Amino acid sequence: MIQVLKKTWRQRLLSLLLPILLVFAMAGVGMKVPVQAAGNDAGAQTGEMKVHFLDVGQGLSILVQSEGKTMIYDGGDKKTSRFVVAYLKEQGVTEIDYLISSHYDADHMAGLIGCLNVFDVKNVISSNYVHTSKLYKSFVKAVNADGLKMKHPAVGKTYEFGSGSFEILAPAVIEKNGSNNNSVAIKLTNGENSFVFTGDAEHESEERMCSSGVDLSCDVLVPGHHGSATATSWDFLQKTVPEYAVISCGADNKYGHPDKDTMDKLKSMEIQVYRTDKQGTITVTSNGTDLSWSASPCNDYTPGDESDQGTQVQQTEAQSVQGQVGQQTVSQAAEGEKVWVSATGSKYHKTNHCGSMNPDTAKQETEAEAKAQGLEPCKKCY
Q1: For labelling alongside 199, which of 73, 187, 255, 297 has CA 20 to 30 A away?
Q2: Residue 177: its pLDDT value, please?
């Protein structure tokens, strides 16, 4: 196990003074030793919390266990659903206290349906929007079959969990035509250790988190959207200032995740990197002060696509390259608005998951190109 030591000065001082105080006490010296309740003592011993970053290919699934309590944050795709259920069983899971669906894309939600069918789930937390996919309907059906209700807590809501707690960071708003930016993001805390999970939240949601006033600093960050350039902005990294980043993505995935822009930022800030596409399932155990990892960081900062040269301009960089941004804006306007077109169908869409569309076969092109093919705008999207 790879262990990171991080002890507070209070703990060091206490460890030095305690033997002396005990000697005086045994000798009958009239000395009063202040004793605080365990719940109010910042230096008190914190219980263990184990976080599992499951290798679910191009998806996300995180299992958290602490003092007999269990949480699962996303469940990966349908193809890995059996693996997720089997893994939880191997860890002795029979009940899930908190099942969190960050949003309703298949690579995050599908495996949760299997968990609902197999385990005794106590609470379901999810995003407050409705998806049009059949998979979403299956998820809602499984929740209802267990006699549960989908909870949509507000930003800042905190839940006790095992030896620690978790706080809701997002979404502050629900985007009508969005999915990724509707992701439920949380900050998980155990003593002095903390973790931030953001699902597929992109720059817009990250910006709202940064301006929320909530403390985003953490030891471990799971970069949003599998390391895509649409997430993990400079501003968000400067607010979270993580020591470690755990990227969940599939080996040789067709999206090229993680993107070079994201990996360059992590490298420039000397953030140590773990990757499920390179290392498989990764675990880390927190005792409130120290982190013990199942492996050393791979610190592989290469993008998923070797040809990726980096293209995403960040807001903080834009201040010094306003001319370049202006040129890009003019160029994009000339090309026209980008729309999504299904492999079969007579309409074009704003998203790649409208109705019964298959996101894997949908392609993106300009609205002018779609109209030239005789396609009409989708009434649901426009």
Answers
A1: 297
A2: 82
